[in-house]
Known about the structure:
CATH superfamily: q2cbj1_9rhob like domain
Radius of gyration: 17 Å
CATH topology: Jelly Rolls
Strand content: 15-25%
Distance between the termini: 24 Å
Strand order of the largest sheet: 1-8-5-10-3-2
Structural class: alpha+beta
Amino acid sequence: MKNLDLLDIPYTLTKDQIDFYHTYRYIKLKDVFDSQTLSIFNDVISKKVTEMNAKPKPLEKRDTYGKAFVQLFNLWKEDETIKKLIFSKRLAQIATELMQVDGVRLYHDQALFKEAGGGITPWHADQYYWPLQTDKTITAWIPLQETPLTMGPLEFSAGSHEIMDGRELSISDESEKTIQNRLKVTDFKHIIEPFEVGEVSFHSGWVFHRAGANTTNKMRKVMTIIYMDKDMKLKEPSNDGQQNDWDTWCPGVQIGETINSPLNPVLY
Length: 268
């Protein structure tokens, strides 16, 4: 295995960057990884995704959610090299400092591979699906290649965590239409930018975001890691998605308890 020391080397965040995240609840950071490190994970994660998604349904036979991406969870349990990325102290340190908490646990990871010709990812807020007591959550969105606008990079409505409307919607055609209409009458800036090699974004659970279609002939390969405050407690689920997440990602944890199951280790 090639040298992966960068995974655990601290990343220097400035006060301005932390303040930016606090205000807008998203940030894009350059040079989090180098091209060599990304190339290693591109190869390993791509191989695992292909293995686990051996017989994909044709795009034309899928709904909007299904056309948005191939979605596979907790690859850290499937491969020791992928586990090195998910357990990276460099990433977990960034998550901890941006949220201004004492440390973070893993909620879960997921590969989000948007196929050539894949459709949009509708407007949504991730925390709709999470039975978590506070908003101290953050997702690292890690493109495994340069991601131009034509590939469908992540887009943000900066500061939209303040909006309550739309929080009750799962990812769907309805969420795309309803949230887009709501955001049109606000002053929150819509951020649509490409991602350079090594650039990683971080966004909170309640900030609204989406992604465009992949109009290229190449797969848009992204790995994501969802972190939560290490002291996060489980709340009563308020929808079927949260009930499913409790059963799947927080096994054995009771309502009101710290989420410290074997699937939720402290990473920093």
